[in-house]
Amino acid sequence: MTTIEDVAKAAGVSASTVSYVLSGKRSISAPTRKRVEQAIADLSYRPHAGARALASSRTNVIGLMVPLRAGVDVSVVMQFVTGVVTHARQADHDVLLLTQDDAGGLERVAAGSMVDAIIVMDVEADDPRIPILRGLRQPTVLIGLPRDPAGLSCVDLDFEAAGRLGAAHLAGAGHREIALLGPPPEVMARHTSYADRVIRGFRHTRAERSLAAEVEACETTPDGARRAVDAVLGRAPGTTGFLVHNERALPHVLGRLAERGLRVPEDVSVVALCPTAVAMAQSVPLTSIDIPGEVIGGVAVDMVLSRLESKQPAESRLLAPVLTARD
Amino acid sequence: MTTIEDVAKAAGVSASTVSYVLSGKRSISAPTRKRVEQAIADLSYRPHAGARALASSRTNVIGLMVPLRAGVDVSVVMQFVTGVVTHARQADHDVLLLTQDDAGGLERVAAGSMVDAIIVMDVEADDPRIPILRGLRQPTVLIGLPRDPAGLSCVDLDFEAAGRLGAAHLAGAGHREIALLGPPPEVMARHTSYADRVIRGFRHTRAERSLAAEVEACETTPDGARRAVDAVLGRAPGTTGFLVHNERALPHVLGRLAERGLRVPEDVSVVALCPTAVAMAQSVPLTSIDIPGEVIGGVAVDMVLSRLESKQPAESRLLAPVLTARD
DNA sequence: GCCATTCGTCGAAGCGCTTCGACTTTGATA
DNA sequence: TATCAAAGTCGAAGCGCTTCGACGAATGGC
User: Fold this and answer.
1) What is the pLDDT of residues A146-163, one digit of tens each?
2) Residue B70: which residues within 8 A CB-CB, separation 6 or more?
3) For residues A274 and A287, what is the distance between their CA atoms, to the nearest angstrom?
4) Any atom of strand C under 7 A from CB of B32?
5) From edge to edge, which strands make up the β-sheet containing A241-244?
6) Is residue B56 part of a domain?
7) Based on the domain organization, do A23 and A141 belong to the same domain?
8) Cβ B207 to strand D below 7 Å
């Protein structure tokens, strides 16, 4: 292993000088810097991450807690992850992967100084991890919005606005009876923050515009989608507008509607709340409200790093939803 | 931050004794051990990962390079990741996430001693990362099979056998004209290891049983699936058996077949090569050859860690494919 | 009853890096 | 020309942990 000492020797300077060349924290004359950089290149030197972390109390690693669990749409998750990783790399950080069911992982990596900061996805309204996060010395950003975000930074799509937007779009297109097909029952039961918020927004617009509007959970299987569609049309046969917040059930919902002789967009309108790519890949390109996973992931990184730099107070950011008409 | 010294003081022993309690590398009397453990609990002490890495040259972190790129089935990827992470945690290791397009990442985390070992997914036949991997001092496991695996450990489903198995199953069901619908063109063009191997196996059985058999890449969009199905049936109208190795195109392939008036399983047979859950979630539960992502990910961890422990030589493991009949 | 082991513990060295004075040199200012 | 500040570099002190060698005490064999 080549060490900073080897580099120093090769460049004819002291180790601290090499360190300052690397960090730029003190000015170094041009010729010296050149020699050091040359030596670094020649020896293909890489600072030892552990030694660096020990001496500087900075690891340049961000912990990311990802839901690898039932009912979560993997492609949405992947988008978030992609956004986080690419942004983190741009800021010269790496990403340590934690899983949702490894609750102790937060404490472990934080107290063990493995990470400088933590990003948590898929937050529930009263998430049990929140007290833990409050106790850590590392800054934290939640993707999602807990009931009480005090002291914690949060970022997410404004799902409540998305619920309103979806309902309003359907109402604006003349539909008086509409329905929200949501995530699978287990996600709803957890009170996953985004699920609840969409419903709230949807109901808000229902009241405001005095629409008839059903809300139904929806499993991701063909059968589950069938049941959900049938349930809604059983209770409210006149339903002609659907807001579907369930990426994986989407094709099956469309399939069931077709089976029942309902054509999209002639007989019923469907608005999808999902990544644009998913809406485009359906049998009919659907009008959709995008879930911009990569963007949100990137923002989360920016927020958490800026909090690291400058001890800024926690803040919440909700991204405005954007609806793109397609059918 | 509480340090090992604090613990030592609280327990009335020296720091080294605490270290030995933690690592078990020397025998410690029961009473002393109890006192130390009590002190650790009281102070909720966590060893500093960086310090530990520096002193022991072990990070207890595994690097995992994941494809976050076009054409890869996210749910399959997620399964691998889940397998790797859960297995790693069981062995008291964490996982650092690297992305495919961050080729320098391998060198960076390895030379910087951020990881003890590396697992690489989605390997191509002549993967440009392979020379890099050979140069690292950390053990490596590839998920996938490069053309020349010498010196590198590999693990994967035996996709060649899966190609044979799929073709043989269709032939056994009486189909004389069959087709393989593969991954998207960009994946085929990369010569991603699994894509090539399925084709090889498929062609092998075609020759062996003198079947008529088409091979066609398939995009994951509805349109792409339509084109692929039409292309096959254009060239070989008598085709009655399909092996589909493309999870995301699967629903659209079925859709297109239905559009053309071909019923599954009455008129044509479809065998899917994908995770079981995906095959079950189609409009008709499909006969399938499972891609056991979690298992493979777990095996990869076992292999890489056992190589860490005991400097064993590299080995390759191919898991036998299992076909489950459904329609 | 003596020597050789084994057991349990400690002290100290060192892992590779950052960072804080402090020192020397140079250039500008009065 | 004398004085001071700034620029550039170095040495040394840690950061918190592991691990090696050493040492006293307890154990066993003869």
Assistant:
1) 999 888 999 999 999 999
2) B184, B186
3) 10
4) yes
5) A212-216, A177-181, A241-244, A269-273, A287-289, A323-324
6) no
7) no
8) no
Task: Give residues with Cβ within 8 angstroms of A125, minimum separation 6.
Answer: A146, A147, A191, A192, A193, A196
Among B99, B94, B107, which residue's Cα sits nearest to residue B140? B107
Structure tokens at B162: 């899966």
Shortest distance between the Cα of A27 and any Cα of chain B, in A, equals 25
Chain A residue whose CA is closest to B258: A255
Q: Which two tokens stand for residue B1?
A: 């931050």
Q: How far is the CA of B88 from the C1' of C14 (A)?
A: 30
Q: What is the pLDDT of residues A42-92, one digit of tens each?
A: 999 999 999 999 999 999 999 999 998 766 778 889 999 999 999 999 999
Question: Domain with A21 in it: what CATH number?
Answer: 1.10.260.40
pLDDT in tens, chain B (327 residues): 999 999 999 999 999 999 999 999 999 999 999 999 999 999 999 999 999 999 999 999 999 999 987 667 788 899 999 999 999 999 999 999 999 988 899 999 999 999 999 999 989 889 999 999 999 999 999 999 999 988 899 999 999 999 999 999 999 999 999 999 999 998 888 888 899 999 999 999 999 998 999 999 999 888 899 999 999 999 999 999 999 999 989 988 998 998 899 998 899 999 999 999 889 888 889 999 999 999 999 999 999 999 998 877 889 999 999 999 987
- The per-residue pLDDT for B75 is 83
B238: CATH: 3.40.50.2300
Q: What is the average pLDDT value for chain A, to the nearest integer?
A: 93
Residue A114 lies in a domain: yes
Write out the residue range of the structural domain in which residue A77 sits.
61-157+294-320
SS3 B71: coil
User: Is there a contact between B102 and A113 if contact means CB atoms under 8 Å apart?
Assistant: no
Nucleotide nearest to A11 (CA to C1'): D9
User: Count of domains in chain B?
Assistant: 3
Q: Specify whether B173 is located in the same domain as B111.
A: no
First to last CA, chain B: 61
Domain presence at residue A55: no
pLDDT of residue A209 exceeding 70: yes
> Would A325 be classed as within a structural domain?
no
Question: What pLDDT score was predicted for residue A70?
Answer: 64
The answer to whether B40 faces chain A, any CB pair under 8 Å, is: no
**Average pLDDT score over chain B:** 93
Q: Per the CB < 8 Å rule, is A111 touching B44?
A: yes
Protein CA A164 to sugar C1' D1 (Å)? 80
Task: Looking at the structure, tell me whether residues A131 and A218 fall in a common domain.
Answer: no
B144 shares its domain with B67 = yes
